[in-house]
Amino acid sequence: MVVGEFTEDVDVLVIGAGPGGYVAAIRAAQLGRSVTVVEKAELGGVCLNRGCIPSKALISAAHHYEAAREQPFPGISTTAALDFAQVQAWKQSVVDKMTGGVKTLLKGNKVRVVQGEAFFTGANEVHVASEHEGQRFRFQHCILATGSRPVELKAVPFGPRVLSSTEALALDHVPKSLVVVGGGYIGVELGQTFAKFGAKVTIVEGLDNLLPTFDPQLTRLVVRNLKKYQVDIYTQALAQGVEETDDGVTLVFTAGGQEHRVTAEYVLVTVGRRPNTDELGLEAAGVQLNERGLVVVDSQGRSSAPSIFAIGDIVPGPALAHKASYEGKVAAEAIAGQASAIDYRCIPAVVFSDPEIASVGLSEAEAKAQAGELAIGRFPYAANGRAVALSADAGYVKLIADKQSGVLLGAQVIGVEASNLIAELGLAIEMGATLEDLALTIHAHPTLGEMVMEAAEVGLGTPIHIVK
Description:
FAD/NAD(P)-binding domain, 22 strands
């Protein structure tokens, strides 16, 4: 113990101020609890500083650059010049605005913020170490929201030329060439973004398809667009090692029974994320972890230590910011004595690729296994007036419903603004809506949202704007 250090009693201690932690802290404060947040780095966590927000800012910039460079509309001529340093400065301004907003929200809700790294010294006590001092806190309740970090491959260790998504988002120039190891949503989003900025991109994926957690039918348009930007794609590929030089790096991998070597300016590794649970001293608190290092929790986020809750990337389920925020609210409400419980039925998944992909609820295969006979409604962007007017008519909306009751079980969207269209469909599943409910809901014309109504009509067998 540091000389002069004393133990302070706190009501609710939240460890981590990412999209799970800061939301949990605010909700607990709203419910009348006194809340202290411990954060070792920046408010907003990985999502706001080194993930969701900066990546979507770069994706947006790449879309604008593409539109200016390729002149997609008849009769409009443009010229495009890329100042990537200015793009990065703008991206940082977006990050600063969002993280500044989090600081304001915490202050406005009277949440105390402590800078430092927490380590458990007992069932209800943590030591928080900062650069110059240490503090001890004894808590009544604790919410763990420590997030995750990129997985490092033994065969492809991080280095000056081997990057994680954190370093890739902070590059001060567009690399002439980039090899992406991992074809999940992070790899596809960043690979496609740098390809649009002009980099020669290669994606190496170990499984059969890119975006392997999505229906292969959904990913075909994305793969087609990647090839439009001369992105080379290798699937069923296994990285064997890297050879770095001062000005480049060669990835060695096997695919199709053959060894391949691709040399680029950088290699970007995006093969998953590891939970930040290994340096918290959780054994001292009696918190049980599973074989993957994730905290075992009940339906309210409560761990094996009754006073400690866990949310976000450190508990089972997809590593999504909106999942963490949702779990944070439930945990805070549970601490306040409410009967809130986690229900993952309607957590949407989105890939900010080109075109975007979004899904919510059950896939067709899952729905068939659970419900038996299904009613499927699929409506193409090409038959939607707004999509055609946007010159963005690739894609479709697909609804999956129980045939007998008409209750919506799942939905998928691929196309422009899929990330926004999926919200209505998540609400429909949450409310137990039927295809008839969606078909009878008047949607404004001309909008992309009309496709939800039209797809419901297809599922009912009464389509208006396509021939049955």
